[in-house]
Design brief:
globular; 6 helices; 128 residues; five-stranded antiparallel β-sheet; TATA-Binding Protein; alpha+beta
């Protein structure tokens, strides 16, 4: 993990398929998808070009609320976000904040950080 706290994985699928797989996994795990931001789609509407780029914002209030109660500044980083973007080589990269980074950044008690560790497992499954 680079010093910026980002974890990046290469997906075996297109941006669209990776996003679909993430959506399906979130639904299966009963994790709420709060928003899906289509950066490249909005760029296109503005007459600009951008490789396929989407961000999914998701979470579970039962897991996230105790974290924000213990470390209120964590609300700036929650709900969780996953960036799915095509790189310059046509590969789909999936990026998210590591739970350890968020723990250090906000001083979250170790016992609670497991509440948001689900992102890594979901991303790993979606990219395979």
């Amino acid at each position: 993990m680079p010093g910026n706290g980002l974890v990046q994985m290469v997906s075996q699928h297109s941006v669209e398929e990776t996003v679909k797989r993430l959506r399906d996994l979130l639904a299966q795990k009963d994790v709420k998808l709060f928003a899906e931001i289509d950066h490249s789609g909005e760029a296109e509407k503005a007459g600009l070009k951008m490789r396929p780029t989407k961000v999914l914002i998701f979470g579970n209030p039962k897991g996230g609320t105790p974290l924000m109660v213990a470390a209120p500044s964590l609300a700036i980083d929650l709900p969780l976000k996953v960036l799915v973007a095509e790189d310059e080589n046509g590969k789909t990269q999936v990026t998210y904040n590591s739970p350890e980074y968020l723990q250090q950044r906000h001083g979250v008690p170790e016992a609670l950080i497991k509440n948001i560790a689900v992102a890594g497992a979901l991303v790993a499954k979606a990219v395979e």
